[in-house]
Amino acid sequence: MTVTHHVRVSKSEEELPREQQLAWKIAEVATDPVEVEPEVVAMIINRIIDNASVAAASLNRGPIVAARAQALSHPVSTGGAGSSIFGLASSGAEPQLSSPEWAAWANGVAVRELDYHDTFLAAEYSHPGDNIPPILAVAQHVGADGRALVRGIATGYEIQMDLVRAICLHKHKIDHVAHIGPSAAAGIGTLLGLDTETISQAVAQGLHTTTATRQSRKGEISTWKAHAPAFAGKMAVEAVDRAMRGQTSPSPIYEGEDGVIAWMLDGPDASYDVPLPAKGEAKRAILDSYTKEHSAEYQAQAWIDLARKLHHERPELADPANISAIVLHTSHHTHYVIGSGANDPQKYDPQASRETLDHSIPYIFAVALQDGGWHHVDSYTPARAARPDTVQLWQRITTAEDAEWTRRYHSEDPDEKAFGGRVEIELADGTRLVDEIAVADAHPLGARPFARENYIAKFRMLAEPVLEPAEIERFLELVQRLPELTADEVRELNIVAAPGVIDLAAAPKGLF
């Protein structure tokens, strides 16, 4: 059964015992030798495929080119054999490897760039697949086998999602990647078989070094949005290294009088109830997460599906001449973060960056309504965003918070939890159209829930332009044997671009 840990701020004179601190409780979960259930193993395989899919589609995008160049500037560290970098050969005559923290950095950026991998939403937002690059990088460096990798990833998902269930960061304008530092550190601790004391120190360091503001997701969104979770994963690798060398951390990091809760979150009188698996309880959190069919913010997934449906049922809606106004009645988060409630003029700017457009539900709904679908590249091109009829339709779309959709968004009942809303369309002829959607089609409760074949199809679609057919088949065969992989096979758990796809010489130059 799950154990709920009451976490509150403690004054310095209380001397909160380390065993009662949340970082220690997280470490106890990480050291619990409970086996990973087959259903969880299968989903971990799905998510490694999913990460590789979106990384393949990103191999030549600016943030990845820069991050990869940085990683290649750092040679393999002396403590292991090194880690692979997406797109580059990790074996053969000239393997291109890096130190694990820098491989975690480059691969984390590749996974995150298109905003196209898995998600979990509760008190906070998260992309728990961000845990995979740092845990995999360490596994390759130290020579861990597939079973150890599975155990580490299961812990990473469990800890991040349990923190997300209980502790809201965005309310205080703290970026959600602050939950990755502790979770990835815990997952690496499980992978390496470290003791509770060492993992607790790494968890605390992972948190302390990764708290930053949400300005990276506000206004004109920059390329740092892709880098932020990769930075958290990199910091987690470094935190584990320091903890293994006996270095200690700020304590108590969550509960301290000058700690994260007291000064960054709800204040000195605050408390949280954090659910963690009891000793011997399987880590099943990954099963509550869900991936994306479309390359856009998760709250946009259901709206794209609804727009796609309306496009086919009512094609006249694509013409702005037929529309007076469209209002998307939705949750607090959707309205204030990616909707008109954010009060960001950039969300209506045809010259906005891709990162901004994927956080603009008015833009996304307009394009999906006109095109009857969504494409990870074509839907974001400057020409597509500036098309006059799209701009006209886009400007007529606003959002509004609806208390019931907010309640369902925060519901802990998986059968009731929803991320969509109700659309009300006022047509130019005076008639009105109302429709709604609760969850995306690909959601476990949606019209077409994602299964293994969908993850594989997504991988093939995104990988075919940049990977040779034999490489696609090699990766898919290997990853689907994950629990039985040897250490050498784990080191091959990578995707290698076709000749000519990556031009390393063209990368921008920096300090390193």
Please describe the topology of this protein.
Layout lengths: L1 E7 L13 H10 L6 H21 L3 H11 L10 E2 L12 E2 L1 H13 L7 E2 L3 E2 L5 H11 L3 H21 L13 H13 L3 H13 L15 H21 L15 H5 L6 E7 L23 H13 L9 E8 L1 H7 L15 H4 L3 H11 L10 H4 L2 H8 L1 E5 L1 H8 L10 E7 L4 E6 L14 H12 L5 H11 L7 H4 L22
Write structural notes for this entry.
It is a single chain. This protein is α+β, with helices and mostly antiparallel strands. The protein has two domains: 2-288, 2-methylcitrate dehydratase PrpD; 298-437, 2-Layer Sandwich (60s Ribosomal Protein L30, Chain: A), CATH 3.30.1330. The chain has helices spanning 22-31, 38-58, 62-72, 100-112, 132-142, 146-166, 180-192, 196-208, 224-244, 260-264, 301-313, 332-338, 354-357, 361-371, 382-385, 388-395, 403-410, 452-463, 469-479, 487-490; strands at residues 2-8, 83-84, 97-98, 120-121, 125-126, 271-277, 323-330, 397-401, 421-427, 432-437. The protein has a four-stranded mixed beta sheet. The mean pLDDT is 96. It is an enzyme of class 4 (lyase). Its EC number is 4.2.1.79. Residues 294-482 form the MmgE/PrpD C-terminal domain. This is 2-methylcitrate dehydratase.
